TrEMBL record:
InterPro entries: THUMP_dom (IPR004114), THUMPD1-like (IPR040183). It comes from the Eukaryota. Residues 15-26, 264-313 have a biased composition (Basic and acidic residues). Residues 1-35, 264-335 are annotated as: Disordered. This is THUMP domain-containing protein 1. Keywords: RNA-binding. GO terms for molecular function: RNA binding. Coiled coil: none annotated. It holds the Pfam family THUMP. GO terms for biological process: tRNA modification. The keyword Nucleus does not apply.
């Protein structure tokens, strides 16, 4: 009937969604389609339930501002005076820089994950390091005492994504962890692994932990440290994709939770980061407490300890199908 013609399917969701900068092409054509693919880089944003689009826009604004502050002219177009003589090396470097510039003009794009309270911000500019950017952003918010967000609650950088199977995860983890732990001038450091698995029952947490510890231990004398590790390996599995990153100052920056960072920044300087003020549970995650039993065959330094449980908040995702874990160290020291 002429009066019942369908309007553009891409406009589903009402007028508010039309203003969103969400780039989710698969979702337009495949019901329940997952727009995140392997070899992507970006930031996982935890946010208020039902405000995923707003959180995506808010995160893009904040990440854009801080990337410009961090990288400055490096992200601007490379201009060369044609009248000046240009060496072959300079010409090659200029061409490489031009190739790395995002072709679409968008450095950050918001992708809905189909999971409540979770948005993925893809970084399309290879010159931007997700871990470095998130650390810079949160450190500045911590020192300035400004919250700057209304919907976003947690920023987790993602160095690279992989299909959620052990062989693909191992290949990507080898590249990511090699960069952070196996550099030529890399000194011995301490680390722990924090896995989180949602909407996936095929990835075995214990195997994942052992594999990551084994990769770290391939070079150097790095050690597992539960209390105050220098680096934390974050591994999140959402549906069919695994997200991997390595972060610094994880406890100081309150598990990269902006609300907790803001609350910490309001305390007297002598109390910040002290034992008196332990990180609060993330307000966007519901986790169960985990306790790993003592392995009688392992040495004392490789014992697993009970870990701190994270409690859910009012706006936290509460999906009974989510398989989430607390913070644990691998079952063996990576030495």
């Amino acid at each position: 009937m002429g009066g019942n013609k369908r309007k553009g399917d891409g406009q589903s969701g009402g007028g508010k969604d039309k203003k969103s900068r969400t780039d989710n092409p698969k979702a337009k054509y495949l019901p329940g389609g997952f727009p995140i693919d392997p070899k992507m880089r970006g930031v996982i944003i935890s946010c208020t339930r039902g405000r995923e689009n707003q959180a995506g826009n808010e995160a893009i604004d904040l990440l854009s501002e801080y990337s410009q502050r961090l990288y400055g002219s490096e992200l601007d177009a490379v201009e060369v005076d044609q009248e000046e003589e240009e060496s072959i090396e300079d010409a090659i470097q200029r061409e490489i820089a031009e190739m790395k510039k995002p072709k679409t003009g968008k450095k950050f794009v918001s992708l809905l994950t189909g999971t409540d309270c979770v948005v993925f911000i893809q970084i399309r500019d290879d010159r931007i390091d997700p871990s470095k950017l998130c650390h810079y952003l949160l450190k500045d918010l911590f020192e300035s005492g400004h919250k700057r967000t209304r919907y976003c609650q947690r920023f987790v950088p993602v160095t690279e994504t992989a299909y959620a199977n052990m062989s693909d995860i191992e290949a990507v983890a080898g590249r990511v962890l090699g960069h952070f732990f196996h550099g030529e001038d890399q000194k011995a450091t301490t680390f722990k692994v924090i896995p989180k698995i949602r909407h996936n029952n095929k990835v075995d947490r214990d195997l994942l932990l052992r594999m990551l510890a084994s990769i770290v231990g391939q070079k150097g004398s790095h050690k597992v440290e539960l209390e105050k590790p220098e680096q934390v390996i974050l591994v999140e599995v959402i549906k069919s994709i695994c997200f991997i990153s390595v972060v610094r100052d994880y406890d100081l920056l309150r598990k990269y939770n902006i609300q907790s960072v803001f609350e910490e920044s309001q305390k007297p300087a002598e109390e910040r980061g002290s034992a008196k003020s332990k990180p609060k549970a993330d307000t966007t995650e519901e986790t169960k407490s985990t306790e790993v039993e003592k392995d009688q065959t392992e040495a004392k330094e490789t014992q697993e300890k009970p870990v701190e449980a994270e409690k859910s908040a009012e706006n936290a995702p509460a999906d009974d199908n989510e398989k989430e874990t607390g913070e644990v160290a691998p079952t063996a020291s990576a030495e």
